[in-house]
Amino acid sequence: MLRNILLATSVTLSLLAAGPAFAAEKKTIAVSIPAADHGWTAGVVYHANAAAAEINAAFPDIEVVVKTSPSASSQVSAIEDLSATRQLDALVILPHTSEELTTPVAAIKDNGTFITVVDRGLSDPEIQDLYVAGDNIAVGFNTAKFLVENLGGKGNVVVLRGIPTVIDDERIKGFQDGIAGSELKVLDIQYANWNSDEAFKLMQDYLAKYPQIDAVWANDDDMLLGVLEAIKQSGREEIKYALGGNGMKEIIEKVMAGDAVTPVETPYPPSMIKTAIYLTVAHFTGHAPVRGSFKLDAPLITKDNAAEYYFPESPF
Questions:
Q1: Does the global pTM surpass 0.85?
Q2: DSSP-derived secondary structure for 253-309
Q3: For position 12, what pLDDT does the model report?
Q4: Residues in the chain where the model's pLDDT stays below 70
Q5: CATH homologous superfamily of domain 2-134+269-298?
Q6: What is the pLDDT of residue 289?
Q7: Entry's Pfam families (predicted)?
Q8: Of 189, 194, 254, 289, which has the maximum CB count within 10 A?
Q9: What class does CATH assign to 136-256?
C-alpha cells in the first residue's frame, strides 16, 4: 500500500519536472466529478481544477477537461455529451453512485477510452483500467477498534451511512468486522447521504428513539457536523464518542485540541483525484504505463499526529 502511494507521488513529481517532452499527439482526458455539494467534494473540485491547470500548462499536447455534476443523472448526461462531442482518450471519473454510472462508463470504455475510477467504485470493477481510492474498509475498521477498546468492549452505538455506493458498503463492512466479537450493539443504521442537514435530522430521530446511546459513528465528517449539533441541542451527556471520517480540517482541529467526544479521526483525502489525474496522464506520456489499484492508508489520527493531517488553506 505504501509502495503504491510512493509510486503515485513519484510519478506526479516526475511528470511536472519532465514537462511536454513525453507527449506525442494531442490527447484529451475528461474528468467527471460531483459538484461541490459538501466539504469533501469541494476539496475534490479544488484539487481536480488545480491538476487540470498544472497539466494543461505543462503539456501543450494534453487537454484535461473538468466537468462537475450535481446528480447521478446529470453526470450520466455529462459524460455522454463529452464522449459524443470529442474523442476521449481517457475518462477519470468519481461516480455519484455506483449503479447508475456503471453502464454509461462501460459504453465509453467500449469506444477504446482508458477508464480511471476514483473513490466510489463502479458495480463492475472489470470496466476500470485504473482505480485510486482510500482504504474504506480501514476507515470503518480502525474507528470500530477504537470504540471497542475505549468503551470496554460493550455499549450502544448508532451509525449514519452515506449514499448507496461501493465505498459506503466497504466502510460499513470494516466497522462491522471491527466490532465483531465485542458486546457493542448497533441500535440503528440509516442513510444520511453524506449531508450535514440530513444527519442532523437523523440524529435527532436517534436521540428521540433511544434513551441510551454510548457512541455515534457518522462515516463522513460532513454528517458528523450535523450529529454534533444535534447532540449539543439535545443536552444529552451520556454519549461518550461521536466519530466521523475523511479528515475535514474542522474535525482535525478538534482532535488537535484533545476534544473528549471526538478525539480521533481517519483520513480519506480529496486530493486523491489529483493523484488519479496525474497517474492517468503518465499512462499517455510514455512516462509510466499505469494500471491496477492504488489505495491510500487510513491510520488512526490522534492528538499526537494530527498536525501531519492539518491543512488550514484547504477547502476541506
A1: no
A2: HHHHTT-SSS--B-B--TTHHHHHHHHHHHHHHTS----EEEEE--PPB-TTTGGGG
A3: 52
A4: 1-24, 287-289
A5: Response regulator (3.40.50.2300)
A6: 66
A7: Peripla_BP_4
A8: 194
A9: alpha beta
